[in-house]
């Protein structure tokens, strides 16, 4: 049995959920799969979940998350560290990278992995596996970018031009020796423009966020459910996910919902890690009544999705950054009301292929947007696709597409 190691440090994040989805599918394909992550209470029953202590600031912010004062202190310390190391962006902790590299070496010595997959949510796994490849040239290494490096968000201390320059340099330096590079479909135009002449580009494959997991249970009796919801006294609108305000902001969407005729019967829930910004929460409370559920475990978040009448999306301000929640939403066949900053927003092509979605563009006329939202909430559409239809339309968003890629890689078939 061939053995695979995923290095996904933030196992509790959306990227971590994607990694676990793929690991589950690979086990069904007959592989043994392990994951190396930060310390966590999450259970991974399919293989070994190895753990490494997070960087000090991350550990302290998590430990004292409930204390705003202490949490803010460590947030400021982290910002100071980032500021002092901005010339190395996005690499901030050489000592941690070395510690991670030593951990990977020790695990590989024990388990002799056939393939090691480094998942980018921060640079350390990509960098550590690049070092490993230089030491063991025959070790199969794949770099997996669920979030883009050169096409991702621009930190406040860098200009867009400098971020792009640094990101492209890191990609060229670290990816030329690996055996495979996986980028997301949403960043394909970016990489075709900026990376096509790079040495590593012939090893690039474009997949997509593997969050679509369809089940018969999710699609049973959905027509009856949504037809009856039109006549309920209240409609339950639910957003699931984090809210980094520099990337996505719900204020415009809340203003539209507050202006709808049905505003008084809307129950709006926000589930996930919320911004620690009192002014933001005050601004929201002035617009419409919102239930801030806060962070919950993934299984509990899925329950909120199941119980919702409408699922809310607030689009990203980063052109190549698709929120993974969209495919989890689609997995449940429910109506999706999406507010996006402009027509280039990356979820639009996906939701255009989904029959139960309504996209509202913030740059369009506000009154027209209110009418559009009201019509949608009054006559909730039904997803008229079967499970097989959605699997075909969004195959690249299934864990199966990733498993197929790994099969080809381990059989040394050119992808």
Provide structural commentary.
This protein is an alpha/beta fold and 415 residues long. 43% of the residues lie in helices and 16% in strands. It has 17 helices and 13 strands. It has helices at residues 14-28, 56-63, 68-84, 94-111, 124-135, 160-175, 188-194, 216-219, 222-229, 251-259, 278-287, 298-307, 325-331, 348-352, 366-378, 387-393, 399-410, and strands spanning 3-7, 32-38, 49-52, 115-119, 141-144, 180-184, 204-207, 235-240, 266-271, 290-294, 310-314, 336-340, 357-361. The strands form two sheets. A seven-stranded parallel β-sheet has the order 3-2-1-4-5-6-7, with helices on both faces. Strands 10-9-8-11-12-13 form a six-stranded parallel β-sheet, sandwiched between helices. Strand 11, helix 13 (325-331) and strand 12 form a beta-alpha-beta unit. Helix 1 crosses helix 17 (399-410) and helix 2 runs antiparallel to helix 3. The chain is globular, with a radius of gyration of 22 Å. It starts with a strand and ends in a 5-residue tail after the last helix.
By DSSP, the count of extended strands is: 13
- Beta-strand portion reads 15-25%
Distance between the termini: 22 Å
User: What's the helical proportion of residues?
Assistant: 40-55%
Poorly predicted runs are 227-231
Count of alpha and pi helical runs: 17
Main sheet makeup: 7 strands, parallel
Anisotropy-based shape: globular
Sketch the topology as an H/E string, one letter per element: EHEEHHHEHEHEHEHHEHEHEHEHEHEHHH
Indicate the mean pLDDT: 87
Broad structural category: alpha/beta
* Spatial extent as radius of gyration: 22 Å
């Amino acid at each position: 049995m061939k053995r695979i190691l995923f290095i996904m440090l933030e196992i509790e994040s959306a990227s971590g959920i994607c990694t676990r989805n793929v690991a589950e599918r690979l086990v069904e394909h007959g592989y043994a799969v392990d994951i190396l992550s930060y310390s966590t209470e999450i259970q991974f029953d399919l293989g070994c979940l190895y753990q490494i202590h997070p960087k000090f600031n991350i550990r302290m912010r998590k430990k004292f998350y409930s204390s705003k004062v202490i949490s803010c202190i460590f947030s400021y310390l982290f910002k100071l560290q980032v500021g002092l190391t901005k010339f190395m962006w996005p690499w901030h902790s050489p000592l941690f990278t070395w510690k991670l590299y030593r951990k990977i070496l020790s695990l590989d010595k024990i388990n002799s992995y056939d393939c090691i997959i480094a998942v980018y949510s921060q640079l350390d796994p990509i960098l550590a596996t690049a070092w490993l490849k230089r030491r063991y040239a025959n070790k199969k290494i794949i770099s997996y970018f669920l979030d883009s490096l050169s096409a991702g968000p621009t930190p406040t201390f860098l200009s867009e031009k400098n971020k792009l320059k640094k990101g492209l340099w890191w990609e060229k330096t670290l990816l030329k020796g690996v055996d495979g590079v996986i980028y997301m479909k949403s960043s394909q135009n970016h990489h075709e423009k900026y990376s096509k002449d790079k040495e590593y580009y012939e090893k690039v494959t474009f997949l997509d966020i593997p969050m679509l997991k369809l089940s018969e249970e999710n699609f049973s009796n959905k027509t009856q459910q949504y037809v009856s919801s039109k006549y309920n006294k209240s409609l339950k609108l639910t957003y699931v996910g984090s809210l980094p305000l520099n990337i996505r902001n719900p204020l415009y969407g809340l203003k539209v919902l507050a202006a709808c005729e049905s505003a008084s019967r809307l129950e709006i829930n926000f589930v996930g890690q919320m911004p620690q910004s009192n002014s933001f929460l005050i601004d929201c409370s002035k617009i419409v009544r919102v239930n801030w559920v806060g962070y919950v475990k993934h299984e509990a978040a899925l329950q909120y999705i199941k119980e919702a009448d409408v699922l809310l999306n607030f689009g990203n301000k980063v052109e190549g950054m698709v929120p993974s929640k969209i495919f989890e939403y689609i997995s449940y066949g429910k109506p999706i009301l999406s507010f996006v900053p402009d027509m280039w927003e990356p979820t639009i092509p996906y939701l255009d292929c989904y029959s139960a979605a309504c996209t509202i563009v913030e740059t369009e006329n506000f009154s027209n947007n209110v009418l559009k939202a009201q019509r949608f909430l009054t006559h909730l559409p039904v997803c008229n696709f079967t499970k097989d239809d959605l699997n075909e339309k969004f195959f690249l968003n299934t864990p199966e597409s990733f498993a197929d890629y790994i099969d080809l890689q381990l059989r040394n078939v050119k992808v």
